[in-house]
Amino acid sequence: YCEDMGRVTPEYSFPAWVIGPDCDILAQRLRDSLQDNAEPGVLIHPMFGTVLVKPDACTYTYSKDESGMIRFDLKFIEAGQNTYPAADAYSGYSANTQATTVLGTLKDRFGSLVQVANLPEFINTAAGLIGADFLDQITGRFTDQAGLLSSLTDQAATLQAGLANLVPATFATQATDLLDTYSQQSSDPADDYANLKRLTTFGADYPAVPETTSTRHQQAVNQTNLVQLIRFSATIFMATTAIALEYDSYNEAVATRDEVADLLFTAILAVGDTDADALVQQITELRTLVVQNITARAANLRRLRTLNTARALPSLFIAYDLYEDLTYEADIIARNKIRHPAFCPVELQVLTA
Fold first, then answer.
1. For the chain, what is the radius of gyration of the CA atoms?
2. What are 18-70's pLDDT values in tens digits?
3. Cα–Cα distance between 76 and 74 in angstroms, integer?
């Protein structure tokens, strides 16, 4: 018979470079980490995935001809179980990158379409009022949960100061930068998501500008693009926030995915009417990446179902009866907003066992 001697321990070898003016300091840190190998460490690699490894034969070289760069030849041996690359991780990274691209194109488009210079004063005033309305809608919701209140206040003040003599390209950058900070201000991303969602209907109550003259036509163009800049930027940050959210159930993840996808599709339709093909394509790609990311993550989550009981029961009893695990009581109480855990409603939303 054949004796099973076990598999050969996998090895991972690849070159690496430390580049930059502080490459010597950073390279020393890397060498120290490689030498301090008493315990296994986590190697994260785009091809190998996430692997628990220990350094083996790692060398480095430095040449005067390559100032600002130190080369490493790294070799690791597996020390534990592999976790191979997940599609959702890469789609999440790609979505964040694509969101940055979309914002850049959106700002460029805004700067080219909105005009206030060499036009009657009321054109700049009208644009400034929209900017002021935007500030009014978000400044009241500033928090300091993430230590960003000072930054938010400074950014808002800078934007406010420029409204009297609005420069379109500058306003677009300041507004999106402010929204970027605004989208990260809470300790709970779900709160940031909700705050951004409110801005996706920004300007819905604005009356249409009668385009009776060329000047009024430009005012209408300005209003449309100011509103779209706020709405679409908020939607883009909603998309990146949705990727950062931790979902409790399949149902919650899919509902958020569909909501973001619908809002991005609304943006696609609105931009498509202006023949902005590049922006349409970019938003479409962002939408695809967000859907892929959340769909992949949702597949591993449990679904919600409706539980009907014959009478009001204690949440502790329900948790044990469903899961044989009392730690689920907190989830049942929070999910159903139960006021008194001893008397739960007869209809509850619970996770599948």
1. 27
2. 888 888 888 888 888 877 766 677 777 777 777 778 888 788 887 777 778 88
3. 7
Over residues 178-235, the pLDDT tens digits come to 999 999 988 888 999 999 999 999 999 999 999 999 999 999 999 999 999 999 999 9
The pTM (predicted TM-score) of the whole model is 0.68
Amino acid at 200: T
**What values do phi and psi take at 43, rounded to 5?**
-100, 125
Greatest alpha-carbon span in the chain: 95
In the chain, where are the structural domains located?
Answer: 11-78, 87-298, 304-351
- What is the per-residue pLDDT for 228? 96
Counted residue by residue, the chain has a size of 353
The two three-digit tokens of residue 148, written as one number: 């960003």
Q: Are 331 and 248 in contact (CB under 8 A)?
A: yes
Q: What CA–CA distance (Å, rounded) separates 57 from 261? A: 48
C-alpha–C-alpha distance, residues 181 and 148, integer Å: 7
Q: State how far the alpha carbon of 57 is from the alpha carbons of 27, 111, 134, 259, in Å.
A: 16, 54, 58, 50
CA distance 154 to 215: 34
Task: Find where tokens 């692997």 sit.
Answer: 51
